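Response to reviewer comment R2.3. The reviewers asked that we include at least one raw input/output pair. We reproduce the pair for NAD(P)-dependent oxidoreductase here without editing.
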Amino acid sequence: MSKKIGFVGLGTMGLPMAVNLKKAGFDVIGYDAFKGVYEKASAAGITMVETLKEVAEQADEAIISMVRDYAQNVEVIFGEGGLLSAQPKDKTIIVMSTLDPDTMNELGKKVEEESDLRLISAAVSGGASGAQAGTLSIMTSGSGTIVKSFKAYFDAIGSNTFYYGEEPGNSQVAKLVNNMILGINMNALAEGLKLANNYNLPQEELLNLLKVSTGDSWVVRNWSDVSEWTADTALAVLLKDLKAAYNEGLKHNVTLPFNSLSSTQLFDSMGK
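Raw output as returned:
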């Protein structure tokens, strides 16, 4: 008999992730506040329910939360009609939302103190295309035993899973580091292309050089997609993460000059 896994938040990332869980043989119990996604999700074989209570009741051992932020996670778990309304026991919430490290630790502590649920964090990287292809990188933290026991879930939605220790917020630090380096690399490539353009070098031929030389990076290999990112989608999310990384640096007296410059450059470019 297939395991039933709950999934809350079937948006741009969540829906394809839930679909890949279904393709891997799991029964997915889905819920989203936006009812417009229900028809599409149901057509993909996901069992859509009308309440969070039903998700908590029907899930065997785990419920994935892929909602936007801390407030929405609190509402999903603790709000009126939330997951706790089913009085679930011995189940784990896998928070795959992007939160700052301290907020994730706060959420983990709140769940531990006020419920019979457990919480692990599993931040993801790879964007909508990675979610659709099932090739996300998954950064986990929390109970190592629980993380290992959920390997099959992570394998269904990602290509690589990493573990960063017992504190739930640690996975969020890993994601901030990854996205900080992404932002720096984006600015580096954009600056290089600006110089090359001044000499009318063919851009595609320059990118071909970089792909096989020391200037290579993920940004170089995916520039056709990255260069189309817009201010109201991926760039806004990246800027948010760069600012979060900067704030973490301030908290711990870690200087991050390249992050600061990348944030400024990105902010200036978003209107163009």
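The chain has two domains: 4-167, 173-269. Residues 173-269 form a domain with the N-(1-d-carboxylethyl)-l-norvaline Dehydrogenase; domain 2 fold (CATH 1.10.1040.10). Further pairs are available on request from the corresponding author.
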